Structure formats: C-alpha cells, structure tokens
Amino acid sequence: MSLIKLVMAKSFINHLSMTILFINSITKIIMKKITIVILIMALTGCAHYYYAPNAANIPLFKEKNTFKLKGGYSGDYYDGSDIQMAYSASKNIGVMVNSFFATETETVQGIFSNTWSHDESGKGSYIEAAVGYYQPFGEHKVWIFETYGGAGVGGESHIYASSQSSKLHLTKYFIQPSLGYSAKKGHLEVGLSSRFSALNLKVTHSDLSMQSNESEKHNLDYISLHPASILWEPSLMIAAGGEYVKFYLQATLSNNLNNHYLPMDEGNMSVGIKVALKNSHRKNTTKNNSVAFE
C-alpha cells in the first residue's frame, strides 16, 4: 500500500513539474512578445495594420420577402462602421450586400525630442455581395441554419512620417455557415457564424525607403511576396429590443491560418441598430400589398 502511495506521489510530482515548466514556457513567450511589441512601438511610433475584419452579416431569415438593414459603429484599434443589407428572395434563398469603413490617425512623438511630432494614418473601405441558403427548423421555427458565399473588393491608403504613403487593393472570397436563434415574437436574436475567407492583398503604391521607415518597408515588401491569406473569422451577434427594431452587439474575430506575419487587426466589435421590414400579401384581399415591420 505504501508503495502505491509512493508511486502516486511521484507521478503527481512529475505532472506538477511538467505543468510548472509549461506555464513558465508560456510566460516567457508572452513576455518576449510584449517586449517585441514595446520595442517596435518605441522605434517606429505607429504600427500600421493592412487588414481588419468586417462584421459578419447574420440575417436569420424565416420567410421570403423580408428585408433587413443593420448598421452601427465598429472598432478595435481603429474607428469604423458596418452597413449591411439582406433580402430573402424566396422561401430558402437570401442575398446580401455589406460595406465596411475604417480609419485611424495617431500623433507620433519624437523618440529623442518631445517637440518633434507627426501624424500617421490609415483608412480603408470594403464592399461585398453574397447569395445563400437559409432554413428555419424546430418548434415554432425559432432555429435557423444558413450558409452564404460571396466576394468583395476594397482599398486602403496609409500616411507615414515625412508624408510618405502607400496604397493597397484587396479582394476576398468567403463562405459563411451560421446557426441562429430567433424568438417566436422576434424580441431576441442570437447568431453564431464561422466565416472562411481567401484574402489577397496587392501593394499598388509605395514610396517608403529603408532609410526613412525600415519596419513598414519590410511589411509592404512582405505583403508583395506573400499576398494570399486563408482566414477563419468566427462571429457572435446578439440583438434584442422591440419586434420591429433591435439593438445589437457583435464580436468578430479574425485568425490567419497560413500567413502569420501579416500585420493585421484581429478583431471587430460592433454595436448598432437592426431593422426588419416584410412585404406581406394578405389573405382574403385582392393583391393587397402592405409593408410592415417584421
């Protein structure tokens, strides 16, 4: 019996030692990354991102002839907005058009002198269109499965120190399966999507040099050599309010699966208003078309 206890104690000590070593390794990696980030900020002043995810459009249709409009503030390390529209063209087919705008300006202080400073900025816009399939199911049809596939294009421009600049063009193809819940009376919606995107970036203009801005010149050269990325972008949307108009909160993350050194923003927090309109053909009337909030 004592031998068994001794073996168990030894096994526990070994597992505890491995756990401590693992935590220590993770801590070293995190501290190393923090040190690198601080060093980059100290040397370059302002970090430029060359991609940021737009919020996923999760319309959660239950029937045809329904139009949904969604818009609000979006941001992470930038200020932006998402404006999204979707329409259920038939019993199971939906279409959507989405737009995304982002901008950020930062005043960079001189490294050796607080009297010298300059502004650096970045801004971009993006628009996409998609078509997909939706299917409500379950009791009272409160659960919805949907899948959309589409493509988008966009552009961005950046201003660095000494008025140097760059411009980039992007194209993106995506497929977005989603699962959602929409309450029977329409006061609550919850949607979870898993978007997979094929992103391609192209540097169309750059007057940066190694002497003036080595780090960003390296970044742009890297993008020219590695323009393609495969992204996994999960998103969670919660909308609540009246039957006709709801307030929503949404979080979208972006994970680069193959191009890990691309300077990109990895998040989009969005808050705004979601409106639904339905074109209904009332029974027992002759072609009586009415427009009402869903």
Topology:
Layout: H1 2-44, E1 66-75, E2 79-88, E3 93-109, E4 117-137, E5 143-159, E6 165-182, E7 188-206, H2 214-225, E8 228-241, E9 245-253, E10 255-256, E11 267-281, E12 289-293
Antiparallel strand pairs: 1-2, 1-11, 2-3, 3-4, 4-5, 5-6, 6-7, 7-8, 8-9, 8-10, 9-11, 11-12
Account of the 3D structure:
The protein has 294 residues and is α+β, with helices and mostly antiparallel strands. It folds into 2 domains: 1-44; 51-293, Lipocalin, CATH 2.40.128. 19% of the residues lie in helices and 53% in strands. The protein contains 2 helices and 12 strands, in the order αβββββββαβββββ. It has helices spanning 2-44, 214-225; strands spanning 66-75, 79-88, 93-109, 117-137, 143-159, 165-182, 188-206, 228-241, 245-253, 255-256, 267-281, 289-293. The protein has a 10-stranded antiparallel β-barrel with strand order 1-2-3-4-5-6-7-8-9-11. Strand 8 and strand 9 (245-253) form a beta hairpin. Mean pLDDT is 84; it is low at 32-44 and 282-294.
Supply the key terms.
ten-stranded antiparallel β-barrel, 2 helices, 2 domains, 294 residues, Lipocalin, elongated
Give me the side-by-side strand order of the main sheet: 1-2-3-4-5-6-7-8-9-11
Could you say how many structural domains there are in total?
A: 2
Just give the CATH class of the largest domain: Mainly Beta
Sequence of secondary-structure elements:
HEEEEEEEHEEEEE
**Rg calculated over all Cα atoms:** 25 Å
Measured distance between first and last alpha carbons: 71 Å
β-strand percent reads: over 45%
- The best one-word shape is elongated
Q: What is the CATH topology descriptor of the largest domain?
A: Lipocalin
Gross CATH architecture of the largest domain: Beta Barrel
Structural class: alpha+beta
> What is the percent of helical residues?
10-25%
Provide a count of the helices.
Answer: 2
Number of strands: 12
Low-confidence stretches: 32-44, 282-294
